[in-house]
Specification:
129 residues, mainly alpha, 4 helices
Length: 129
């Protein structure tokens, strides 16, 4: 059941990430707009995924705001490596293919791989108690 919930939450977070990227492009489409959009999507997806994972996957109840902040920091730190996977696929697809939607396909592929890796990192290093 955990794998199913984690997959659903990863899909929801992916949709939120892509939606924020799309909205970012509507607002700004100038120099480095892909990187601005990826950053905006990453932050939106990260916060949502942390809330869902903490409560429904790892069943963690923070002891205090400090504890929650520490967990969020560790959760974000584990996400650095997986973010490079996600961004690498998105940038690679955008560069390799002429389609306007290629970057979104790359994002979905990269996020899918990244979320699998992230689960194991979070289980081992973030929510280990």
């Amino acid at each position: 059941m955990i794998a199913f919930k984690y997959t659903v939450f990863a899909l929801i977070s992916t949709v939120v990430n892509i939606m924020f990227q799309y909205l970012s492009f509507l607002i700004y489409d100038g120099i480095l707009s892909l990187y601005v959009a990826m950053f905006m999507g990453t932050v939106a997806g990260l916060v949502l995924k942390y809330i869902l994972d903490k409560k429904y996957i790892f069943f963690h109840t923070p002891k205090s705001k400090k504890d929650d902040g520490k967990k969020f920091f560790l959760y974000s730190l584990m996400g650095v490596f997986t973010t490079f996977i996600f961004w690498g696929f998105e940038i690679g697809f955008d560069y390799m293919y002429e389609s306007e939607n290629a970057k979104y396909v790359g994002a979905v592929v990269g996020l899918s791989i990244g979320y699998v890796v992230k689960y194991f990192l979070d289980k081992k290093f973030v929510f280990k108690d």
